[in-house]
Each structure stands twice: as structure tokens, then as C-alpha cells.
Amino acid sequence: MKHAVHKLFWAWDFEKEEKWLNEMAAKGLLLTDVGFCRYVFQEGTPGEYQYHLEWLRHFPSHPESRAYIQFIEETGAEHVGSFKKWVYLRKKASEGAFNLFSGLDSRIAHFQRVTRLIALLSFVALAYVVALASHCLRLGYVPEAYLYMFGAYAAMLTLFGTGYLKTLGAYRKLKRKRIVQE
Amino acid sequence: MENIALTEAVYYILLSLYEPLHGYGIMQKIEELSNGRVLLAAGTLYGALSTLVERGWIEALPGEKNSRRKEYVILPQGKAAVENEIRRLRELLANGELITRGEAK
Description:
The complex is a heterodimer.
Chain A: E1 2-6, H1 14-26, E2 29-35, E3 38-43, E4 49-55, H2 63-74, E5 77-83, E6 86-92, H3 104-139, H4 144-180
Antiparallel strand pairs in A: 1-3, 2-3, 4-6, 5-6
Helix pairs in contact in A: 3-4
Chain B: H1 8-16, E1 21-22, H2 23-33, H3 42-55, E2 58-60, E3 71-74, H4 76-100
Antiparallel strand pairs in B: 1-3, 2-3
């Protein structure tokens, strides 16, 4: 039996998303496909798989990403699906522990990539707000339709900005930890 | 050789490559060498392997056509790095033992 679940996770909550997927797997709902805010689960043995997700440097179809995914698969893991540069991987619990990153350095590098992604989104939202504001300044008044757009972009900026600060905080925490340990 | 401190992961990857191994083999070898203490994750290993190849410390073997799994082996520069690391670890160990046993120099 397959179940499609629609759920939204922001990029800065990817660890929560991963936790949720593993909780589902523990209940016997195994992720088999992903899309935009869409998760397809197949009923299976509870706890059979462990899941991880990663934001890659390149899109999954890029040769470097393909080489990377193939390498991960050779270690006994399986590529479940991708959305943009996010890849969803799983490994049978019976085949041993599954982790993508050991040691702080690679976790830091991954966090840095995610932080950059969110920074880019925030920057785009900021650019829209600035462009709209400067346009209104030139006009000398604020057309009513612009008010809604302004509100929407400002909300986007607040959302992404908050997400950015959140990931940046987590990233810095890891960096501080790295001073003491590997 | 510059005075480089290797990470635990790199040290064990280099050690495991005194004989040619593919990715998963390296992970298993390291787990075995460290009696299950060091579980190297696949993503971390992948990054480390490409960096070590770039540095010329290890190389990917040409391999057979049918085999998709790439095997790696250590190069002289990698061996020099390991030797250097062993000297560094000896110093760390000696100083650690000296001081914790209250026999400071």
C-alpha cells in the first residue's frame, strides 16, 4: 500500500524533516519517492531503513553528483529520490549504521551549503522589497496593488531571513565545537 | 614535509590504503582497525578521497572495465604524511604520559 503525504519543511528544518522520515520508517512507513512538499510512503517492516537527506553541490543529474550518489550506493545505501539539489538516501538497518557525515568538518561543510542556499533566497526577497520600494519612491505614492505585493515580499523576507539566522546559528555552533574537537 | 596534523579520518584512510581498497572496503577496514570505534560515514569518506587524490597522497586505480567500483591506493607522498603523523603522535603521547604522571620536564 502506498500513501502520499503532503507536508512542507523549510530548508532550514532539514534535520527535522530527516527526523520525521525516520519516525515514519520506525512506524513502517518507508519513503519511496519525493517531490515538492510531497512524500510517498510504502508500507513495510517498521525500522527496516534509516534515512538521510543532503543538499548537494550540484543537481542530482550532474556528473559529479552522479558519481557521489553511486559511491554512496556502493556502501549499501539506496537513492530514494531527489527534489532540486536535495537527495534522499536510505540504508537497511540490518546492514549497519548509516550516516552521511562523520566528524564535524563534513557536517560543517553541509551546513555551509544549506546556509548559502537560504542566504540566496533571502537576498532575492530583499531585492524585490528594495525594487518595489524604490519604484514607489519614483512614483511619489504607493499604488494600492503594490501594498499587497510589498506585504507578500516583506513576509517572504522575514521568513527566509529568520531561517537564515537559524541555520547560521547552528553553523556557528558547529564551528565553535570544531575548535575543541574533530 | 610540512608540519601537518592529520585528522583521524584522513590518518585511518591513508593507513587502510597501504593495500588497494574501494570505498566500502575502506569503511570496513577502518572499523576493524579501530575495533569499531571509528565509523567513517560515506559522505565524509567521499570528500576526503577526492581531496587526497588532488593532493597526490593517494590515487584511483584504473580498474577493470566491468567493475564500477573504484579502488584507491596510497602514494609515496601519502606514506610520508603517515610517517610524519606517527612522529607527531609519539610526541603527543610521550608528553601526555609525562605530564599526567606528574613527571613534567
